[in-house]
Amino acid sequence: MSNKLPAELRSPSAKKECRLLGVLKSAFKFVNWCVILFGWVEKLWQKSEAFRSLVTDLFS
Q1: Residue 43 is part of which domain span?
Q2: Is residue 13 in a domain?
Q3: Amino acid 1: pLDDT
Q4: How far is CA 20 from CA 8, 48, 54, in A?
Q5: Which of 5, 46, 47, 48 could make an S-S bridge to 9, C-beta 3.0–4.6 Å?
């Protein structure tokens, strides 16, 4: 069975680079979701007195 990847993508350094790019892509997605979640919580914090009192009670 032949390998369909070009020779330059079969080298160990290319595999490490692909792995690193995969990790960076996953990290970017995680940070992006954290930013979205933080924005949502911030809007909820500003609009809801009940949410603020709940959080204050939890952490006091």
Answers
A1: 29-60
A2: no
A3: 46
A4: 16, 41, 41
A5: 5
